Amino acid sequence: MKITHFVVIFTILLGMSGLSGCVQVAAWERGNLAKPQMALEPNPLQSAIQAHVYGSREAAASINSSGGGGGCGCF
């Protein structure tokens, strides 16, 4: 009985603490969140180039590509 009571109270407290993280961002704090280093992908152009190079190399090996192989697959 005590263990079940403890689990119920713990679950309620855990849920309440999770709800406290849902807050509105104030207008003066939005500038900090909009900084480039806060982005999920800080440099999208570099990531696109790396994805293109990776895709080209894998297409040459004909592993992850629907197209035919060709080329040496060198970096």
UniProtKB/TrEMBL annotation:
<dbReference type="Pfam" id="PF14086">
    <property type="entry name" value="DUF4266"/>
</dbReference>
<feature type="domain" description="DUF4266">
    <location>
        <begin position="25"/>
        <end position="74"/>
    </location>
</feature>
<dbReference type="InterPro" id="IPR025362">
    <property type="entry name" value="DUF4266"/>
</dbReference>
<protein>
    <recommendedName>
        <fullName>DUF4266 domain-containing protein</fullName>
    </recommendedName>
</protein>
